[in-house]
Amino acid sequence: MTTPFRNVTPNGSGSAATLLVVLSFTGFILLTQSLFVVPAGQVAVVTTLGKVSGGSRRPGLNVKIPFLQSVFPFDVRTQVRPEKFATLTKDLQVIEATATIKYAVRPTEAGRVYSTIAYSDRDVYPRIIQPSLLKALKSVFSQYELVTIASKWSDISELVERTVAEELDKFDYVDVRGLDLTGLEIAEEYRAAIEQKQIAEQQLLRAQTEVKIAEQEAQRYETLTRSLDNQVLFKLFLDKWDGKTKVVPALPGTSGGQPPVIVGGRN
C-alpha cells in the first residue's frame, strides 16, 4: 500500500521568521521614537520622566530615549504682539493707546522657562511679557502730565522700551527687540488745550529766536562802532580820495590823533 506524501514545514523555521518580523517591527518603532527633528526657528526642551534633561536642542535631527523622554518645542523667532492699554497720567487723566512689542525667547533659556513658568511658547506672552509690559507702561506714564505725553510721544515710547527691557532682564528669559506706541486716545477738550499750548510754545520760541538775533546784531554794531575811531575813518577816506579835494592838515600836538579836516570840494 502506498503512503500519501505530506509537505511538512519544520516548526523551528516558522518561529524564526516570526521572531525576525517582530524584531524588525520593534526596531522600527524604537528608531522612530528615538529620532526627532527640530524645525528652523525653534528649539526643543527634552524631559526625562517629566524632568528637564540637558540644554535646549537645536534645529536639525536629534536623538532621545524612546518612551522615557518627551519633547516640547519652543519658538525662538521674533514675535510681534499688540497690547491695547489704558492708564493714568501724572495729572490723573486717562489715556488709551496700543503698545506693540517685539520679543524673542532666548534659545538657551527655553528649559528654564519650561521648568519655572510655561510648558508651551504660547504661554510666554501672558505669563512673562504682558505683566512686565503693563507694569512699565503704568510706571512711565504716571511720571508725566498729559500735555507732555502728547508733545513728547516718541521720547516716551523709547523710555517705555528701555523700561520693559530692564524689567525682563531681571528674569533673563527673553530679549526685547523693539516697542512702538500708537493710537493715542484722549478726551477732545484736553486735545484742544494741548494744541493751544503747543501753538503758544511755538510762538514763544519764535519770539525768543528773534530777540536773540536782534541782540547779536546790536552787539555786532556796537563792536563795529567802537573800532571806527578818527584814524580809521581817515584811512577809509584816503582809500576813496580822488586827489583833488582840499584837505587841511591836523594841528600839531592835537590830542586824540585828530585827523586832517576836509575843507573844500574839487577844483
| Outline type | elongated
Oligomer: single chain
- Can you list the strand order of the major beta sheet? 3-2-5
Q: Helix and strand string, N-terminal first? A: HEEEEEEEHHHHEHHEE
Measured by DSSP, the beta-strand proportion falls in: 15-25%
Give the termini separation: 177 Å
Treating each run of at least 4 consecutive H or I residues as one helix, how many helices? 7
How would you sum up this structure in a few lines?
The protein is an alpha+beta fold and 267 residues long. It has helices at residues 11-34, 110-116, 124-141, 146-151, 153-169, 188-227, 230-240, and strands at 35-38, 42-48, 51-52, 60-63, 69-75, 79-88, 94-105, 174-185, 247-248, 261-262.
Structure report:
The chain has helices spanning 11-34, 110-116, 124-141, 146-151, 153-169, 188-227, 230-240, and strands spanning 35-38, 42-48, 51-52, 60-63, 69-75, 79-88, 94-105, 174-185, 247-248, 261-262. By secondary structure, the protein is an alpha+beta fold. The strands form 4 sheets. It has a 3-stranded antiparallel β-sheet with strand order 3-2-5. Strands 6-7-8 form a 3-stranded antiparallel β-sheet, with helices on one face. α3 (124-141) packs across α5 (153-169). The mean pLDDT is 80.
Using brief descriptors, characterize the structure shown.
3-stranded antiparallel beta sheet; 267 residues; alpha+beta; 46% helix; 10 strands
Topology overview:
Blueprint: H1 11-34, E1 35-38, E2 42-48, E3 51-52, E4 60-63, E5 69-75, E6 79-88, E7 94-105, H2 110-116, H3 124-141, H4 146-151, H5 153-169, E8 174-185, H6 188-227, H7 230-240, E9 247-248, E10 261-262
Antiparallel strand pairs: 1-4, 2-3, 2-5, 6-7, 7-8, 9-10
Helix pairs in contact: 3-5
